[in-house]
Amino acid sequence: MLRSSSAVVWQEWQVHVTSTSAEVGGPALLTCVAPPAVREHATVAAWYRDDAVLAPGDHLSGPTLLVDEGWRLVVRSVRVDDSRAQYSCSVLDSLTGERRRSTPVNIDVAPMSVASAPRSIFHGTWEANVRRGGDVILPCLVHSNPPATIR
What we know:
About 20% of the residues are buried. This protein has one helix and twelve strands. About 5% of the residues lie in helices and about 35% in strands. The termini are far apart. InterPro entries: Ig-like_dom, Ig-like_dom_sf, Ig-like_fold, Ig_sub. This is Ig-like domain-containing protein. It comes from Iphiclides podalirius (scarce swallowtail).
């Protein structure tokens, strides 16, 4: 009888967070980044603001929005104190059970300008994976003063 076996090769890996800059009152985008080989079988276990876990709650309301299966965090309306807060994420590798937490980052918060044209805080194509029949959230990350109307 032939037995099929598979091996798991252990390798060191790290996770980190990237952050967009934001104006007071506007959105900021934070991205949890893990190596592609790990991301295939890993999940974001938690996001932290300082040492407090950010509860996902209702994904469509509240001060934060989790998108891209939790790999991205949108802070909807940035406040001045968000520049002092430290954000980090924790990733769980489902193959090894290992969990890694990123080093914390701050959001670069600029004062609100007097008037500005709508501008995107995330340039480029937004990609999301979804299973057939599943729901997907594609946020429109635009900020202006006065607030833009999206139709």
